[in-house]
Amino acid sequence: MAYDVVIVGGGPAGLSAALALGRARKRVLLCDAGTRRNAAAEHLNNFVTRDGTPPGEFRAIGRQQLAAYPSVEARDVRVEAIAGARGAFQITLPTGAVEARRVLLCTGMIDEPLAVEGFRELWGRSIVQCPYCHGWELRDRRWGYLARGAESLHFPIMLRGWTRDVVVFTGGAFDVPADVRAHLSAAGIQLETRPVARLVAREDRLESVALSDGATIPCEVLFAHPPQRQVDLVRELGVGLDGDGYVQIDPVRRETSVPGVYAAGDLLTRMQTAIVAAASGAQAAGMLNHELTAELVTGGWSGGRA
Ligand SMILES: Cc1cc2nc3c(=O)[nH]c(=O)nc-3n(C[C@H](O)[C@H](O)[C@H](O)COP(=O)(O)OP(=O)(O)OC[C@H]3O[C@@H](n4cnc5c(N)ncnc54)[C@H](O)[C@@H]3O)c2cc1C
C-alpha cells in the first residue's frame, strides 16, 4: 500500500512533520540518512524545552515520540531517487522502492567549508554560524567574523551584544566602504583586511588567526557563513531554487515547483535554526494533511486552500 507521505530527512523539520502527520492519522515513512549539519556541535541551544540538549539526544527523543503513532514508520536509510508524479511517487531506497502520494523534502543544507587552513577541523566548536545558538555560552570572549562580502558587515555589529571584543577579517577579498568602516569603528569593532593564512588551535580550540604577513590576531571564537548547497537528491528533482540556491515554495501551501513535492526546514532559507525548521515542518504537514484528507473525503475540495 502506498504511503500518504514519504518524508526525506529526519532532522527537526522532518521529525516535526512526521509527528503532526502521525497525529493526523496519515501513513508516513520518515527516511533519514544520518549525516546532519550540526554534527560537530556539542549542544542544541535556543529551542524552548530543549535548550542545551546534545543534538543526537534531540533526535532520539523525536524518534521515541513518533513511536506512539502506529501510522508512522522511521527508517535510517538514504533516499536514492524519486520518480513519478503527484499522487503516485516511487521512492527508491537501498532496499527497494516504496510508493507515496506526496513527498516532503526536509534534507537540510550542506555547508561547504571555507578554504582556510584549520576551518574544517574547528567548524561547529570554535567556528559557529549563529550567535543565538552559541553566543550565550561563548559570551565575553574574543570573537572574530570571517566576512565574505561588504553586504554582510551588519552582522558583526549584532555580535557586540554578546561581547565587547570583536574583530572582522575580510582577508582583503573585497573593499569596505568608508561609511561601513565608520560604523564598525564607532561600535569598537576592529577591522582586519590583511589576508588570512590559517587558524591556529590548541587542543582543538581556536587560539588565534594567523595572517599572511606573519602577524597573529588572538581570537577564541569565529563566526562564519560558508557557502551552502542542496543535497544531490533535491538538485536532481529539479525543484525551483531562488537566486541564493534555496528551494522556492508556495508560501501558503508549502509545495515546490514540482507538483506533489513539498519542502520544509533549512533548505528553504538562510534563517537556519532548529526551532524555525521544526515550525516549518509542522506547517508543511498541516497543509499536506488538509490536502490529503480533502482528496479522500470530497475528491479534492478544501476551500481553495489545497
Ligand atoms: C555547527 C552548527 C551548530 C548549530 N547549532 C544550533 C543550535 O544550537 N540551535 C539551533 O536551533 N540550531 C542550530 N544549528 C542549526 C540547526 O542544526 C538547523 O537549523 C537544523 O538542524 C535544520 O533542521 P532540518 O531538519 O531542516 O535539517 P537537518 O537537521 O540538517 O536534517 C536534514 C536531514 O536530512 C537527511 N538527508 C539528506 N539527504 C537525504 C536523503 N537523500 N535521504 C535521507 N535523508 C537525507 C540528513 O542526513 C539529515 O539528517 C546549528 C547548525 C550548525 C551547522
Topology (elements, then pairings):
Layout: E1 3-8, H1 12-23, E2 28-31, H2 55-66, E3 72-75, E4 81-85, E5 88-93, E6 96-105, E7 110-111, H3 119-122, E8 127-128, H4 131-134, E9 143-146, H5 155-159, E10 166-169, H6 178-186, E11 190-192, E12 196-202, E13 205-211, E14 216-218, E15 221-224, E16 228-229, H7 232-237, E17 261-263, H8 274-298
The structure holds flavin-adenine dinucleotide (FAD).
Quick one: CATH superfamily of the largest domain?
Answer: FAD/NAD(P)-binding domain
- Roughly how many Å is the radius of gyration? 22 Å
β-sheet strand percentage: 15-25%
Could you name the ranges where pLDDT drops below 50 across 5 or more consecutive residues?
Answer: none
CATH fold annotation of the largest domain: FAD/NAD(P)-binding domain
Q: What characteristic shape results from the CA principal axes?
A: elongated
Q: Please bin the fraction of helical residues.
A: 25-40%
**Small-molecule components bound:** flavin-adenine dinucleotide
Number of strands: 17
Tell me, rounded to a whole number, the average pLDDT: 95
Give me the secondary-structure category: alpha/beta
Q: How many individual domains?
A: 2
